[in-house]
Amino acid sequence: MYWRLSNLYFWFFALLGGLLPYWSLYLEGQGFSYLQIATLMATIQLTKVMAPSVWGWLGDRTGQRVRLVRFGAITGSLFFAGVFLEPGFYGLLLVMFAFTFFWNAILPLYEVITLRVLGSKKERYGKVRLWGSVGFIGAVALVGGLLELVPIRYLPWLLLPVFAGIAVSAFLVPSERGERKESAPKGSLKAIVTHPAVVAFFLMNFLLQVSHGAYYTFFSIHLEQHGYGKLSIGLLWSLGVIAEIGLFLIMHRLSTRFTVRQIVLGSLVLTMIRWGLIAELTGLVPVLIFAQLMHAASYGALHAVSVQYIQGFFGKHHHGQGQALYSGLTFGAGGALGAWMSGFLVDGYSTSVAFWGGAVAMALAIVVTWRGLQPPPKEA
Asked: Membrane topology per the record (predicted)?
């Protein structure tokens, strides 16, 4: 059962590892402008605004989450095949929108399936989910190594085995256990969402993802401009994920020693420093390694705190809707806007200026957090 659950995590994040660090380089090699690259990369984030809510609603409505995961895996792979037609900018925009809409459907559904299959053994979730990080790191290193040997235009072909792995593993997913329907939701969702602390929380996370726009869209191009090879780029991306894993392993200790407010403010300050270091000191390898280790704060600590924050404010009756809002408003809307804005900055100035733009977004997030963030209420 363990390997059947972890299998899909491995292949899903392996695709992310093969796509995220190198796709912008592939688009650049295809002759697209920086603004076009930003628009295409923003599509990956934009579909997160609607996909989690649509597919989550379908899963709750039909109860057929396993079938929906399989449908998303097969349909997403078929749409990705449109890349091989070399459809031009608008055609590729449509291909990426369709592909990511189905691809982004898989993970939220699968998280529910995994937790329900584990049942009372939810403490084993970390060991299952860990294989996603292994898949990401393995794919980043392998694809980066292969791209040292073959031109970047072959990247879609290198990703085909990963799509096959996702499709096969989707059909090995065990059926989830039945669960009794919850009673009618208690409390008003509107009252929760309009609470000043919750508004500050979502605004902080929105600005956080805006600041990541330059990183997820132009980090690889930025490194290539400073003389780094494909394998070196991949290893630097992997270093960020390794730091994130390390943070997750010690997060429970940090949570007992520091308040939510302290962890968030500290992480935001480190993130602002990280973007400044990447903008100005990219040529210094030790500094760049240090900046990548800060991914533990930029993503690891802030994501871990955010998941608990949503659980505390939204409770079990609105937890699903809270997670959907968190994914859509921050990773989706914030990530898409950040990618698009960074495209304008790179097109008009440079990749370094785009990272300084991220630092400015972090400064605003620090002000919002300092003035408005409050700890979530403890559940009874």
From this structure: Multi-pass membrane protein
